[in-house]
Amino acid sequence: MVQYRKAAEEAYARFRKHDWFIAEGYVKTYQDKLGSEKEEFVAKKLGHDTARTDYEVVRKEPTSAEKATTIAAALKAAQESTDQVVGHTDSGPAVAPTATTATMTGPREPAPAAAVGL
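User: That's the sequence. What structure does it adopt?
Assistant: Structure tokens below.
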């Protein structure tokens, strides 16, 4: 198995001998110095096998632009969901359904990725 450029550098930094991994790539045929035809697996994507590896994920804090994009996507998904329930789209005047407004205070758990449209 081989990797090239930045992918190889990242794998070298993150993996240790005997780590379980999963790779995605292709088989490349080449000729060695003696003229013999050989094959090698070129890994395009490589990651730890989550079924066999215990690890902790360290995430960077999202930038303001990333937060705004995530919030905008969540609001759009919520509006589309509401439109489906109410039965209208933005193509005409909307009649607001009668409902009570709820206010949430205190710490909030992050929404699941599916809920924010990721």
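The longest helix spans residues 64-86.
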